[in-house]
Amino acid sequence: MSVRLSILLLAAIPIISACGGAAEQDLADRGQAPLPSDIHPVTLSRLPPVTPEDLDDEGRRLLAESPNRRAGPGPGQFSQYNPDSRDLGIPDGVGSPVGARYFQLATMITAREIDQEYEWSSHAVRGLVQGVDQSVIDVVKYDRDVAGLSDKDATLITFGRTLLRENGVSSELWEQMVGHFGRQQTVQILQIMAAYLRVGIMLNAVDQQVPELDDAWWAARGCVSKCKEAAMADQVEILPPLDR
């Protein structure tokens, strides 16, 4: 990291600290109840103001380009961890900062929770190609228990299911996600899920049908020959309705 970059990033720390103290005093002055223990007084959320330690090299570079950005409540806090201009890997997961495998898993969880067949058919196949085991796909597809999966996969699946079914997650589940992925990648996963949730809702509204899955369709997703045979044998591309 350059000296100039280090100075710019460190200069923001006193501003963040001062804002936190002011927010806490403001709550006390207004007689409001203290915040939950995992809520930061500046952002009023579980995401504290971003620090260089939260970010990868690209994130630190982008943060340094906006040294006067102020932390606070609302959606702007997410772009400090991952600016909207940064490529998330949409649509195929290649180059995603969370990795192609977790990109596809996050997308599949979202498609499953809103019963979006068009998105599922594409991303379940791509997920198979990009390293998501059939056993993991089936846990998402059939709403099975996550027992037996790696703790990281199980946490992401539980996080996505809970968020989309209950409109929130517990402090403990949030901490588990951050423990596995870090704050930056947790935000990036949320941004990926949000992107496919937005599109999926619109596709559901227009009753989007799945096109004919011809050879060109399979080839475009990198699944040919033995991959295609295995995928079709397991019907990985089909999303059955669930009894909820």
The CATH class of the largest domain is identified as: Mainly Alpha
Q: Characterize the main sheet.
A: none
DSSP summary, beta strand count: 0
Report the CATH architecture of the largest domain.
Up-down Bundle
Mean pLDDT: 89
Shape: globular
Structure description:
By secondary structure, this protein is an all-alpha fold. The chain has two domains: 3-81, no CATH class; 100-233, AhpD-like, CATH 1.20.1290.10. The protein is 58% helix and 0% strand. The protein has ten helices and no strands. The protein has helices spanning 3-29, 57-64, 76-81, 100-113, 117-129, 134-141, 151-166, 171-205, 215-220, 226-233. Helix 4 runs parallel beside helix 7 (151-166), helix 4 (100-113) packs across helix 8 and helix 7 crosses helix 8 (171-205). It is globular.
